[in-house]
Amino acid sequence: MAAPAPALVHAARPPADVLVRGAHVLDPREGIDAPVDVLVRRGEVAQLGSPGTLRAPEGAEVVEGEGRHLLPAFVDPHVHLRTPGQEHKEDLETGTRAAAAGGFCAVLAMPNTAPLVDTAPVLGALLDAAAREARVPVGVVPCITRGQDGVELTEMAELRAAGAAGFTDDGRPVVSAGVLRRALQYQRLCGGVLALHEEDPSLSTDGAMHEGAASARMGIAGIPSISESTLVARDCAIAGYERGRIHLQHLSAAESVEAVAAARAHGVAVTCEASPHHLTLTDEDAASLDTRLKMNPPLRAEGDRRALLQGLRDGTIDCIATDHAPHARDEKEVPFEQAPMGTTGLETAFAAVHTDLVLPGVLGLALVVEKLSAAAALFALPVPRIAAGEAANLTLVDLSAEWTVGEAGYESRSENCCFAGRRLRGRVLLTVAAGAVAYRERAFAVSAA
Amino acid sequence: MRHLLSIADLDREDIERICARAGQFSEVSDREIKKVPALRGRTVLNLFYEASTRTRSSFELAAKRLSADVVTFAASGSSVEKGESLKDTVLTLAAHSPDAIVIRTPHAGSAALVAGWTTAAIVNAGDGKREHPTQALLDVFTLRQKLGGLAGRSVWIVGDVAHSRVARSNILAFQAMGARVTVCGPPTLIPRDIEALGCDVRFTLDDLREADVVYALRMQRERMDQHLVPSLREYAAHYQINGRRLGARQILMHPGPVNRGVELSGEVVDSPQAVITAQVKAGVVVRMAVLYELLAGARAGEPAHLEPQPA
């Protein structure tokens, strides 16, 4: 049986006709790192040319790109769009608007909604809704187990035929090794990456922050790094044995990075992601008990953060994923231990990583750009490329523009952003997703007109 | 001082000033009429989300002896049980314009959160497992009475440190006063990296004799449900402070209520080394000092209003 392609759907929008003139184009996969004129015609990259050489055909918009960077747009394999059932936190429209504002041209939605996405009818209804409301293409990753209860497999083959982009019980681990093994066996029939939330609940118990000096000081039950790394090691072993394909979500601990590297060295088909917040913040930041800094896995120690950075550099960590997890204000306006886990992240991902990691020279810009869209290949999605003949998936950013997170509000319905109030450098000005203009920064929209 | 949220916000001078004022208030407590008009017309609101007899009544007495009006709001039997959020409850109660809110909740950081929602002075009377600053202040007050000072003294805090807000506040307070603090208990009840607070960690009582002060923590029976120790019997065998382990010149403290036969043997509770009732007595005057400092803030530099209540 040929593996069905994941459905990636969005609302119909007029195809873009845009000439971006003189922007510094950085597309590591295409080997471009220079000022280039880029012409988009009817939603496709039509032509690349030396700066000042391309002319806009009639009806095409001209965007002055000088001093700005044009990048392949980003792909996020891990967002919570909260639809169906939790639209007070986010919906397909607001969530994908946030994605476009962050420079993303595609996102994969997690299934821990109400109801859960664990049957083909729910998946179908969600994809239909995305085809009406989504500003950027949305794929859906339904559950591995029914009700995410870790016991019975979902009808994975039917879900794949209905467009599942993979499978995940995100928010929860697959606690039973036997159930995960069955899912990996069944994967041979239906394909689809299993994206795993790695957490041994017997170790994380009622923890609310990373177990370490900060949790000891705060008197808050800790989530030890081994609650993640032991399950990472176990699941890599199972995937290796079954020759299955797994993707590990939101790695946070140094031991987990080591475990992935060891599994890779043994040929296990495992990929993994790290989030902007785990790459830039630590448990000492969470010690403020600001509930926007409460997420699962928790912000960990400085040594863990450094291990994640090293993992990105040496390729152990394949991609950056936001784990965009919106929550309503009143849900987060409670004591830290009672607050739900999660931070929003789509609108700040690039700027946070650029400000905290690229500008200080910790990571190269090309590496960050590559990792922000690397998830596409991992999930068999179209890879954004700035090359003639490709669908236009690109984002224009001003690396020197400074802004304060949250000052002008958010595109997301929720405001639980762990970077709120931070002054960041790097602003998305324009995003073209699947050939259509999905976002224009307000001030930029005015000046370009 | 605007609020009392954490011992970490106080330095040695602050603690000494509060203790000195508590000393002045002790005289009041020994009078026949135990009341001064210092906070007449002020409203103190006690908001307790956890069962507490001692701390609550201690705060009530403290406020009343300062002539403040006191309202106590216990979570059970209130709108909290109907699902009202902490913020909504606080906003509702703040509509009564209390001058101070004394709050205890099962969650770390609650007092600090509440401080952002109202203009009242906030006193943290216990936020989850994090802190219980007035307990630490009354313990310092008690030790200053018994020892003169804490500089260079060794204090052992013994028991369930992981779940103890008393331990966390006392580690900070005793160290601020110059004492060396050692925490001791079963490894399952000592938080990883607690050394970050500056204390030593021991897992046996073998060196207990080096302590000038032995501070036993309550062994909460609900920990047994989580199987954090094999049995109370085994806990007592290794960590109970009893006549065999407690030296004649050591001071024994406990925040109460005591589980006789578990963390303390009956004989040491009744021994002359135990200062447990002195701690309770100190609780009222120290809380008077805290409320006075917060609510008479502008005049805090002047001598306390110690004149008896006019008839």
Q: What labels describe this entry?
A:
A: 449 residues, alpha/beta, Urease, subunit C, domain 1, TIM Barrel, eight-stranded mixed β-sheet, 16 helices, globular, B: 311 residues, Rossmann fold, 2 domains, four-stranded parallel β-sheet, 9 helices, 14% strand
Verbal overview:
The complex is a heterodimer of chains A (about 450) and B (about 300). Chain A has helices at about 90-100, 120-135, 155-160, 175-190, 200-205, 215-220, 225-240, 255-265, 275-280, 285, 300-315, 330, 350-360, 365-370, 375-380, 440-449; strands at about 20-25, 30-40, 45-50, 60-65, 70, 75-80, 105-110, 140, 165-170, 195, 210, 220-225, 245-250, 270-275, 320, 395-405, 425-435, 435-440. Chain A has 2 domains: about 20-70 and about 390-449, Urease, subunit C, domain 1; about 75-380, Metal-dependent hydrolases (TIM Barrel, Alpha-Beta Barrel). Chain A has about 450 residues and is an alpha/beta fold. The radius of gyration of chain A is 21 Å and the shape is globular. In chain A, strands 1, 2, 3, 4, 5, 16, 17 and 18 form an 8-stranded mixed beta sheet that branches. Chain A has a 5-stranded parallel beta sheet with strand order 9-10-13-14-15. The longest helix of chain A is centred in the middle third of the chain and has 17 residues, at about 225-240. Helix content of chain A is about 30%, strand content about 20%. Chain A contains 16 helices and 18 strands. Chain B folds into 2 domains: about 5-130 and about 285-300, Rossmann fold (3-Layer(aba) Sandwich); about 135-280, Rossmann fold (3-Layer(aba) Sandwich), CATH 3.40.50.1370. Chain B has 9 helices and 9 strands. Chain B has a 5-stranded parallel beta sheet with strand order 7-6-5-8-9, covered by helices on one side. With about 300 residues, chain B is of the alpha/beta class. The two termini of chain B are about 30 Å apart. In chain B, α1 (about 10-30) crosses α9.
